[in-house]
Design a protein that fits this description.
alpha/beta; 11-stranded mixed β-sheet; 3-stranded antiparallel β-sheet; 35 helices
Length: 779
Amino acid sequence: MIGDVSRRHDEVLALVERGRLAEAADGVRRLIRRAERAGHAGLPQFRLTHAWIELDRGRLAGCARQLAAARPGLSGGALARADCLAGLLRCAAGEYGVAVDLLTAALPELGDDRRWTANALVGRGTAHGYLRRLREADADFAFAATHYAALGERARAAACVHNRGFVALQAGDLPLALRRFDEAEARGVNPARHPEAMVDRAQALVAAGLTDAARPVLARAAVLLADAGRGTKLAEATLALAHCAARAGQADIAVAAAGRAALLFGRQGRTSWRPAARAVELAVLGGPASVVRRVAAECDRHGWALSAAELRFAAADHAPPEVAVALLAEVAERRHSGPAPVRALGWLARARLAEDRRAVFAACRAGLRAVRRDAATMGAWELRAGMAGHTVELAELGLRAALAGGRARTVLRWTDACRAVDRPAVLPPADPEQARRLVALRSAVSSGRSPGRVRLLERRVRALDLAGAAGDPGRGEWTFAGLVAALGDTALVSFLVHDGYFCAVSVVDGRCRFHRLALVPVVADAVRQLRCHARIGAERAVRRAAAELDGLLGPLGGSRALVVVPVGVLHGVPWAALPSCRGRAVSVAPSVGAWLRAVAADRAVGGGRVWLAGPGSRHARGEAASLHAAHGGVLRTGRAATVPAALAAMDGADLVHVAAHGRFREDQPLFSCVELADGPLYGYDVQRLPRPPRRVVLSACDTGRATVWPGGDVIGMATALLRCGTATVIASVLPVPDRQAVPLVTALHAGLAAGPGPAQALADAQAQHGDLGFVCFGA
């Protein structure tokens, strides 16, 4: 009997280790009933195990009942473990201060019991984290990891590394959080068996504004958690899903998910979590001011600063004036501290309360600086672009104030502020692990592996990229005087959208003008018509659509060289097709700041010339070989044109020409690529070149296309090169007909060698051979 009961207890513990909590709960209940009938001495210990399982399932009342029943029969080390479990229970209930006190008291009593000492440290670290005592939390998790490692429990030690990622997330260091999550997975945290790890990773993505990336991770985690009976983390995953849906404007989904989360938290007795779920509901649906203020205060009391700020801010839009002012004032009080989103909302509230334009500008500038300082520490474009979501309203409020003031220079400045977190990418040296992941992905793609395998490898590349830190990119501000000096005789037109209209600010000879153009749907339809006709080669229709679009875009006329800063659908325009741009040097840039950086980069002295030809095109090899014969340099074609060889040759080159098939990925623009001998050369590859080439010509389909993210950030193969320091990229925003491309690029390179500059060399070549959708990006 004794051996049989002990064996059954071991089986229950094994089920717990495998995450099969529902089965473990059934097993321990049967074991307790059997022990009760037999008067077994192990009954208190079995109840303690049941309490642990109930805690892990989010059934806090059940955990408390089992602890109370077990305690009278416990002594010594077992009683110390019960005290530890009581502290863990308070932590799960959100009573973090009480949890720290209980666990601190329990630790000396646990003596040499390393496993339970580690458990207590993990619980205390979690409580410290939610209390924002982040240094103490990190120390507890690190110490717990040493105990688990000494016991040979690698998976639990790895879980402590993951928990240190949770601490970094609380501190707002998203790249470090994601690095720790990645390291934990490499050390043995299996997300399929521990879906709570998926929830934490998704919450980091939500914090970065990457809700589209977080949503499928949370949905998968929710299924796994429900199957495993992990009620605690299931409730948290459901709340995170509600946040995702609310940020995506999916009101019905947000309210339903928040309601489910609130219900789960209520059933679990987690009173500190319910206000966060209620805050989502109220922010979406609205409610009486008294309820809003009560729930917001509860969020503040339990550490949900962002939920409180978002609720007050949303409620202010529908509240009576005096109540709205009070709500905004409460949000504005938080503008100097806390996570970047909380500070951004605080400055936005301060701007909304401002009584004059000068105060609006000051508050918006301060908010933008606060968020962009955080974004500057992030190496990954996606994180930086996601952070832009926290600045959109600040920039747009500043722009509205500038438009009301009527000064074109100020409008230009705030239009550029709306170009998201526009800073150069300052990336660390190439990561060997990322290089290995990209090699594995290339191999899978070129060998025709299953789409599921390719998607898995893409996720691994993307995950490591998100975890990358960045150096200090320096200041990104520019002055109007500096812009005028850089332009010289060149004109600049920066487009914006306001009140349903495309507008523009032009700068010519130091004079700045504002232009109200056409309705957004009219311009968007003209762009769509032009691109559709160009893709099928309907020349007469292309000319008609180009002339129509040209007439809508107002200030492009004239003969002088032109810099264009597009917005929205205008990023896909083949500018040389427009009558006013034909034969004219036109440079396109994501922002004024990006153009000025490209001009500065173009002054650098580069290395040699590189000519690359990918497989599968009859004309690519001949194109590269003839250009090499005419201009010298390094030639890589056929089997020699591999990605490693191409990257080595590109590093520090003055000019790189790539003739290959190209693919653009709307969903994941850094997986846009050109095909080389061993597979795709991705945007992820080129963005980490130690010394980016000065000028790049991509004679490949669609390599000039880019995705415009919410908030205005723009990314594709061409913009990835510009962000890492390339001065000029010439690429097409349309499919490139191979045969027609050869004479165009031959004339282009002859012009580049003659020295009129890339934009003029391209314009002259297009005047002779057709535009083919090629655009000069950058300097």
